[in-house]
Amino acid sequence: MNPRIVISGAGVISPIGAGLADFEKALYAGAGGIGPSQLLGAESIAAEVRGFTPQQWLGNKGIRVLDRTARLLCVATQMALSGTGLERGDSAEADSERGLVCGTMFGSIHSIASFDWSGLEDGPSLVNPMEFPNTVINSAAGQAAIKFKLGGINTTICAAQSSGLYALHYATEFLRLARARTLLAGGAEELSEEAFLGFRKNGFLSSSGTPRPFAPARDGAVLGEGAALMILESADLARERGATPWAEIAGFGCAQDAHSISAFDLGAEGATAALQMALESAGIAADQVACLIAAASGSRPGDEMEAKALKNIFGSRLAEIPVCAPKAALGETLGAAGAMAALIAALALEKQCLPPTAGVAEPVDGLRLASRAQTIHGDYALINAFSCDGNNAALVLRRWSGE
Hints:
Peroxisomal Thiolase, Chain A, domain 1, eleven-stranded mixed β-sheet
């Protein structure tokens, strides 16, 4: 019999709050993190972690060699470990049964671009070798493992906007196979000039600077950043160390329907298949889903595809299910998006209350989004993460009842 894998803690740093308590408070207050960018210039609109000073969590030691992605991920790691009593002292040996699985879309893309540009301008013999380690996509996960003595599995998963959910599933399977005892899993993404300019050139970004998930007047997404990690372990291990789980990983589904490197499949076949697979994996019917955490970012084709997939699965009942679209507040955090959404789902199940969708000003046909928190009744949450490169993923969480 497969062990039950549960979420027993989390760390998060986001555009609306740093730390679980601040994040939850802002989330349920309907706060938004979108505004003029400090990193990119005030003429650019983004959802960034403003005034980010990692030293308050990490201290000064070793900070200089960490780029922004690594700093975000290390802060989330510190929060998750310290919040659950799993942090190890400086003198402790690395734990070979504790590891990290991180989802990201671009990783440390700014470090990569800066290093390459330096080589082109100054010549390869004059680049700074200290900057090279940050040019590999798994650098942030490796830095976090070194800093926090995570001596076990260290994996970086790159599946565009679905990366965070893939990371949670990957970690869950490794725990079920007894290849680790405790894993931190989730995602991290930095806001960078390179990603911003690329998405703007491809017409992905909102010209109004306001993401409107599923709304008829939506005109694109706003880029965001942040990191969210969850502590995953078996229910037996959590019980053994006196921890109270928040939720259980109940099911996962994925499907690939790529037909372009930057376009959603409006037929929604892959998204529909991922949703159906997640429900079947969890052993539940569509009418047992108590709430939905949507992937919608304000993208005209992406939101259309998701709405179609949801209607394919839930039919007329879709209008009855409370829905939250967190990218209205957090922006499109890319590789971190699925992890942020899963954390929100775990909070919602525990509280039996779904947070509002920031800025909802008009009804959205067939979808129950609201500008206020919505009461939910039931044990299962469905989380979506659909990517413009054809990666479609869905995760089902079950409220922990101890049974």
